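Sample 3 of the quickstart, ligand heme C:
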Amino acid sequence: MKFQLIRVATIVAFSVASLPAANAQFAKPEDAVKYRQSALFVMGNHFGRINAVVKGDVPFNKEEVIKNATLVNTMASLAWQGFGPGTEGGRALPNIWTEAPKYKSYQDKLQASTAAMLVAAQSGDLENVKKAFAAVGGNCKACHDDFRKK
Ligand code: HEC
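Result:
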């Protein structure tokens, strides 16, 4: 019993020690900028593919829309890791760091809407997808208006 406890304690101590420090996920600030821009670029690309369906340029294929909505939803949760302290740059406005709670609330709104868009895609109803797409688009725009350089 005692031996087991010591083993558990050792494992816990080891795992905590091997976690990267909060700001050490990226070797240099430029890497964080590259990471977030890449995630946002991929998100934008897959959102654009859904846009083509919503506009009627590409026929509605439920499985394809689910794939694209899944990627948008995943990227919408990843990009923000790249905005840590000391990573100013790119088209990011400085108020991202001075108005952090507001910036976070925009991320949360986006994520709620991309999750809803995935549910809409799974419903297989194009009208649902259109509505959910418009809601996500509004959240992209709101954040770009307030936090991205023109
Ligand atoms: C919470 C704020 C926020 C939301 C929400 C947001 N963006 Fe952005 N986006 C930014 C910021 C800030 C940048 C500039 C990042 C930089 O240059 O470092 C950016 C940059 C981009 C870029 C350029 C990436 C590159 O190649 O450099 C694309 C594309 C993009 N966003 C698409 C979207 C789409 C599509 C949505 C909605 C599905 C969205 N964004 C939602 C804040 C946001």
